[in-house]
Predict the structure.
Amino acid sequence: MTVGAAIRTDATARPGPLSRWINDGWITTRRNLIKIKRVPDILVFTTLQPIMFVLLFTYVYAGVIDIPGSTYTEFIMAGIFAQTVVFGSTYSGSAMAQDLKDGIIDRFRTLPMSPSAVLIGRTNGDLLINSISMGVMMATGFVVGWRIRSSFLEAVGGVAILLLFAYGLSWVMAFLGMMVRSPEVINNVSFLILFPLTFISNAFVPAETLPPPLRLIAEWNPVTWLVQAARELFGNVPPGTPVGDRWVQQNPELAVLIGVVVILIIFVPLAIRRFSQVTSR
Amino acid sequence: MNFVEAVGLTKTYTPKGAEPVHALDGLDLSVPRGTITAILGPNGAGKTTAVKVLTTLIVPDSGTATIGGIDVLRRPEAIRPIIGVSGQYAAVDENLTGFENLDMVGRLYHLGAKASRARAKELIDLFDLSEAQNRPVKGFSGGMRRRIDLAGALVTQPEVLFLDEPTTGLDPRSRLGMWDIIRSLVSQGSTVLLTTQYLEEADQLADDINVIDEGRVIARGTADELKASVGGQRVELNLVTPDDTVATVEVLRRYGTSEPAVSNDSRTVTVSVASGPEALQLVLRDLEQQNVALFDAGMRRPTLDDVFLRLTGHTTADAEAETVKEKAP
């Protein structure tokens, strides 16, 4: 048996840093795409759950909650979009924890690959899953009567801001996954944090209807800014709806963009640093 | 010339609410080029920590390490292209096929798409992995995963290969298969650092053995040197019937330098002697006079278990028990 073939990594023949970085990011992204293909649960969950939410919320609450100048279906869609993509960003947390548990992070860390590649591949995987979810939810929304009442470009902006927000959150979750190291714990903890975060917001009811302490939390909750931004960009805010006098209420799109940039500035380096130090067991 | 050189490595972990654990406590290590060197020690002796330091996974608290003259701690990015690592827990992606796993590793070594595919195919053939070529690794046996993992460490021909307990948890047949693979690597001149808790494995595979306990090397040499360091030889007799045990022990006492040891089934009796051949002749003569029937009689050198016992004053099993105790809260 000849195990040692004449393959050597020749330092001079190796591609430059940028093309290596792109290669590594693509290879690890591809790994996650194959996983989505091989583990059908992920795809079933990411398509069926949003359909279920759209149907449940629009039909169960439509008669109860009154939205002046519009319908609850029009109101709720941005909320369901936001909730779904926020939860869709948590795969990065449990997946990083699982990779650590399986020891494959050790394999990656002993390869001459760029230390950010695994994280880029991982967060790209979430981005893809969320894109699929968005498509499914929008299609279901159209069926139950949701309509985009803005320009095409604004609608694209609405989809983009939702995906961008979730992308930022994926980096936070990936970092936490490497800190907590247990896929089960990270799932439970993110559930405990993200559920209140999405509910104490304007996602499912107008924030003005919340009791004062919750209302204050809701107004400063980034999910509220995101939902408000998406609602505005999809043209689902009926004309004449009162706007609060806080800056974040008047400029939700900008608030979300600034928030995402801040999150990425903090958590991308933190996650990469953690990746460069962490080892299984 | 030593290809891998580590001097005075220390690493201390402090688990929450427990005493600090000195995983490495001044470990020195050297691996000459083209040889296979074993780190032998019980669970918790620091074997995996040592490998993790040398493979750039963790940074020691103090000490230095070089591979091929390159500083492991200062230039880990220069180390990674020249090493191959295969760990105790097969680091393969469950959802990828055997081929996809190896292809991915090749591409992350920046071999390019074509060369990565060709090398993956080649390794599939070499390691007899055709069964796992096009099926996800999930669902394959531990032996198969371990082979894929080892193949992953050989995607490029690494200048030094680190094998952390390559056969732990494998069934005896898979273990023999793994030994064959490792032997063939060495016959081609690879430099290998292997950790093991199996004395027989170090004896079978390694040119040079470092016995470690509590994070430092307590003895170093070839298997023969280590055994000779215990001194003396043993005469070992296998009896046809346990009825002769008492008479045999009586005879062995005359020529032995220690109290004869009787196995649990009373059929094997062993004693240390000063000079093997001479003692064996005398023992056989006496036993013949007493009509003791033997299945087998011979001299044996001390085993590495004997070595460990002499060096540390405790057996490998004791050392493990101690480690478990230390780790308990």
